[in-house]
Amino acid sequence: MSRRMLGLILAVFMMMTLVSCKEEGTSSSSQGIASAASLQSNPVQEPEPPQEPAARNPLTGMGIDPEKADDRPVAVMLNNLKASLPQLGVSKADIIYEVLAEGGITRMLAVFQDLDGVGDLGSIRSTRAYYLEIALGHDAILVHAGGSPEAYSCIPKWGVDNLDGVNGGSEQEMYWRDPERRKNAGYEHSLLTSGEKIQDYLAGGRYALKHEDGYRYEMAFAEDGTPAGGSAAEHVSVKFSKSKTGTFDYDADQGAYLVGQYNSAYVDGDTGEQVSVTNVLVLRTRISLISGDSAGRISVDLSSGGEGMYCCGGKSVPIRWSKPGRTDPFSYTLEDGTPLTLGRGATYVCIVGLDSAVTAE
């Protein structure tokens, strides 16, 4: 091949390479311009802050249907003898009050702002005068099955709106006896009701379903209710009596206390899950035997106020509690008088004697 021919071939090759490079550069430049334009027209969106619920549950601080926020809650008397377990529906309660009854046993008063989806509830047992005072503090409708002589005397005197499964009238249609419980646990532990049956009965208009003007439950809530400067409270033990101790073990993953009793998990028989709560309150008060009561029933002072403890987020602080009048709700403050702020979620309130052993570590 002649030198002239070789030079011509090299010249053609160089021209083709230049054209190719120019086209690639133009393409890359165009893509860069297009990408910049795309970013300018579609900027990265910052995540929006969570929206405030239209209404909040006054008992938990959680979001709730606005139509239910001003409803009167329902307070349900629950049996807590070991033979009667598991209880049903207790994990759906907004507040659980546990208080001594006679003989060292305890019963629960479970308070629900909204009964939708609660399912079966029970077993239902009889009430006492101090449970009436707790229900009245919430302006609640009380669900129970019988009561002490003192309680039956106080119900009409104090104007307690109640649905009695033993000595009631038409409200007894809300209840039924569970055959398995009746067979295995005994007749007295077999009475059940349900959220749906309670709602259906109340829809008949026997009692007002909304709070009257002027009623206030002014409990403050925060997303994180862990008390500042609190002491360790990942494992809390509350001794109600020689035969009953409650335990609360903090689960950091859930951000809640897992409840235990009778040396095992406190399980809801409806869900099969261990009951968990955001807040634990221990209230100390004077508890004494009622003079001349043949059944050994007790009196629980809910009007004098006193000392207590608040646990949330694995920490605890001492508090003071008060309930000035029978129809007033409980009020809680820190030792310096600052109103207590609870964490949003369910609360478990233990009402114990002045000398009851309570530990937190």
UniProtKB/TrEMBL annotation:
Record Gene3D superfamilies: YerB-like
Region of interest called Disordered, as start-end residue ranges on this chain: 27-66
Keyword hit for Cell membrane: no
Compositional bias of kind Low complexity: 27-45
SUPFAM superfamilies recorded: YerB-like (SSF159774)
Keyword vocabulary terms for this entry: Signal
Signal peptide positions (record): 1-21
Domain DUF3048: 59-203, 236-349
InterPro entries, per the entry: DUF3048_C, DUF3048_N, YerB-like_sf
The organism's place on the tree of life at top rank: Bacteria
Statement: the UniProt record of this protein carries the keyword Signal: yes
Annotated protein name in UniProt: DUF3048 domain-containing protein
Source species: Oscillibacter hominis
